[in-house]
Design a protein that fits this description.
This protein is an alpha+beta fold and about 375 residues long. It contains ten helices and 13 strands.
Length: about 375
């Protein structure tokens, strides 16, 4: 990880375990490395995946060039006795946020209206900050001043709260754990502060503003139009929903299946090919994609709407997102001026070395 830096947004200690929400920025010395050819790149990715399977049970990588998938590599196992393949569904963790932001923008809500005008009877708890200054635009750029950086999930076999329950701090994700009500801890519009809780507020706004479940709005406005037939937010909320891959701990052991009612923050499931289709849409001049790629105020140019933004040492611009939940480690990067992008998904806590190695094929 010599070429990268981790900026931890929060560390939440729960029952002796730590959940870290991080935003990763490329710093120092990294410059664009043009692949010699698609076939050479494919061979290099195959080698990266082979080596990476020492740390995770399974992985899938897709590469895009000029708007289409030109290489896909799968390796390892999705669960015992089942290999990772083209149809393997992964939990996307915070790679959910770009799809969620795209959904919000397609839903037709006013991004600059006070978000509480869309949340029905739900309100932020009293604080020293003006909740009328919280907007969807600020929530999607992590500049709304909201807290609760991330979520730990709920056992699949247990009861699942609504997103409003989660916002109000009702329901415990793991036995003995405390819960946090989403509130305001900083001036809205005053600066960047990573907040999964803010995306949950945006989720409630879409559900209340449209009268439809967030998963249905996403299906209508995003996944169906883009041909993402194996992708959806319902995979971590519907009882018994298919979930082909299992998450694994750092030792490669399967973890307890977890579900996330906080869909916008981290509840998406997808295949590597489906998510690559979404990334291709983000690289176009579509107004929604352009808005998402535009740096938001008070983020120092590092975040748009649901997207991390950055520049390599040689000036090459990129956008993307990191996705880490318990048992999963994923990375998406796109270099729009170069026409290249990749999606790297792993079903284990130890996936950072693999996803970093894929990235370094483009930034060596």
């Amino acid at each position: 990880m010599a070429r990268t830096a981790w900026i931890a947004a929060a560390v939440v200690l729960v029952v002796g375990a730590a959940a870290v929400v991080a935003v990763r920025l490329i710093v120092g010395g990294t410059s664009w490395h043009e692949p010699a050819s698609v076939e050479a790149l494919r061979r290099n990715i195959e080698a990266v995946v082979r080596d990476g399977l020492a740390d995770v049970p399974g992985a899938a990588v897709a590469v895009l060039h000029d708007g289409r998938v030109v290489a896909t590599v799968h390796g390892g196992t999705a669960r015992q006795g089942q290999p990772v393949g083209p149809g393997t569904v992964f939990q996307m963790a915070s790679l959910s946020k770009p799809v969620a932001a795209y959904t919000v923008l397609r839903a037709g809500l006013d991004l600059d209206r006070p978000v509480e005008s869309y949340t029905g009877t739900w309100r932020f708890p009293p604080s020293a900050f003006d909740s009328s200054e919280v907007t969807l635009r600020r929530l999607l750029s992590h500049t709304a001043g909201t807290d609760v950086p991330g979520y730990l999930g709920y056992p699949a076999a247990g009861p699942l709260p609504t997103v409003r329950d989660s916002l109000d701090g009702r329901g415990s994700p793991v036995p003995g754990a405390s819960t946090s009500r989403v509130g305001l801890v900083a001036t809205p519009g005053g600066g960047y502060g990573y907040s999964g809780g803010g995306f949950s507020v945006a989720q409630l706004a879409v559900e209340t503003g449209t009268g439809q479940p967030f998963a249905d709005v996403a299906a209508t406005t995003v996944t169906r139009p883009l041909g993402m037939g194996a992708t959806g937010f319902g995979c971590t909320t519907a009882p018994g929903a298919p979930q082909e891959a299992l998450g694994h701990d750092a030792g490669g052991n399967p973890i307890l299946a977890l579900r996330y009612p906080e869909a916008a923050a981290g509840g998406l499931c997808s295949t590597v090919d489906d998510y690559a289709r979404f990334v291709a849409a983000l690289m176009t001049d579509d107004p929604v994609a352009t808005a998402m790629r535009t740096p938001a105020p008070t983020t120092d140019g590092h975040y748009g709407l649901g997207l991390e933004l950055g520049t390599l040492a040689d000036g090459t611009a990129w956008f993307g997102h990191l996705g880490v939940n318990t048992g999963w480690h994923n990375l998406m990067r796109a270099y729009p001026d170069k026409g290249w992008a990749f999606v790297a998904l792993t079903d284990g806590d130890g996936g950072a070395a693999l996803t970093d190695a894929v990235e370094e094929l483009f930034t060596g």
